[in-house]
Amino acid sequence: MKEFAYNLLIASFLICYSGCGQPDRSGVSLAVQNAPGGSTSVYIPPLLYSDAELEAFFDSIGNLPPELWMDSISFYSDSIFKNPEQLDVTLSPKDFERLKTACKVGDMEFELASKIFKNLPADTTLYAQSGFPITFFSFDHRENEFNEFAIFPVHPSAGWDGEFYFFKKNKLIARHDVSYRHSFFIDHYKDRDGKTVVFYKYNFAGGSGIWQYNYYFYKYYGNQLIPVLNELENANLNLWQNRSFWLESTIQKTNPLTIKMVYHQDFRDSANQVRILEDSTLVRYFWDEPSRTLKGDYSSAKISREQIFSYYLTGHHELLFMNTHRSLLKQGISGNNPSKRRAIIAYLNEVKSNYYSLVGVLEQGL
After folding, report:
1. Residue 215 bridge partners (DSSP)
2. Residues 307, 277 contacting (CB under 8 angstroms)
3. How far apart are CA 205 and CA 214, in angstroms?
4. Which of 42, 141, 223, 257 is the most exposed place for a label (fewest CB within 10 A)?
5. Is the distance from CB of 175 to CB of 87 less than 8 angstroms?
6. Is the pLDDT of residue 229 over 60?
């Protein structure tokens, strides 16, 4: 793993390293040296590179294929999305009737719950009389059909994570671990082919000024629940580094699936935030039978799939941002807005400094 990470970084930065050179402190950017003074509680790294070095670094990143970073950025979320536990458990007619009764009243006999659910509490005393609490989600036209549905043991408000158990009639077909923090959500719709699509939010990070949620979409396909779309729902990074950003997705309609994305990007110029980008767009998704996935049509959207990945909190998202927003940053550097130019130069300095440091750490054997 260490060798793989080292080789990936060296491959990514070999062009940059040879083209950009090492720090030339005698030519440190005048654009940022002349930034307005004043104290700030936000740490801004000192400039180590000249404007020419930073722009050469920027150009070298811009000439690389974005796929170089996309797989590593989405690896964690895709690993969870694509690998929920597939099950094939058939309930007896008697147990299925007991399960339907439990769904209607909101609690289940512990003996039955122990047959279906994993990770039940070891101490059963609490549930001996009152039963085991469950939350029922129907994906049918009428709740009493029990054709396609899910059960969430206990109530979502009891914690920040849990498990969905998905059923097709009397068959338990899948178990999904889910992390939702403060934003529990699950919904469904019928696709154009009449099959049910279920989607929920998964939380990957959360805190003050930083979080990421993804939409996970799955489709009932025979007696399976297959993964069909993993899309960013909400990403926020604010004042943790030079670049701050926000992206939020909302579902506008389902046939075809249409998602509105609202997003912005800010850099720092001294203590001030400089808005680099602010926009919104619609992305439509269509079913692709050969791959059994929902594919986004970005041809009429103002954001690309590669640019969406730059809002993730994982992997080398800064390099992907530079790569996929090259024209935008070039315009800011060459434009007539001194504050925007200073902010972009400071950002490039931060990224270049951080990644040279990371290459050095890997070379030392971490």
Report:
1. 201, 231
2. no
3. 10
4. 141
5. yes
6. yes
In the numeric block, which tokens belong to residue 110? 């512990």
The alpha helices in the chain, defined as continuous H runs, are 2-20, 30-33, 51-62, 67-82, 93-105, 110-116, 127-130, 305-309, 317-324, 326-334, 338-363
Nearest Cα residue to 258 out of 318, 223, 300:
300
Give yes or no for residue 273 having a pLDDT over 90. Answer: no
CA distance 312 to 102: 40
Q: Round the average pLDDT of the chain to a whole number and report it.
A: 85
Q: What is the pTM of this model?
A: 0.84
Amino acid occupying residue 240: W
Tokens 């998602």 belong to: 259
Question: Rounded to the nearest 5°, which phi and psi values hold at 353?
Answer: -65, -45
Instruction: Check whether 12 has a pLDDT greater than 60.
Output: no
For 150, the token pair is 């899910």
Is a pLDDT exceeding 60 seen at residue 241?
yes
DSSP string, 150-165: EEEES-GGG-SEEEEE
Secondary structure (3-state) at 332: helix
Distance CA 350, CA 205 (A): 23
Enumerate the domain spans of the chain.
2-85+189-363, 92-169
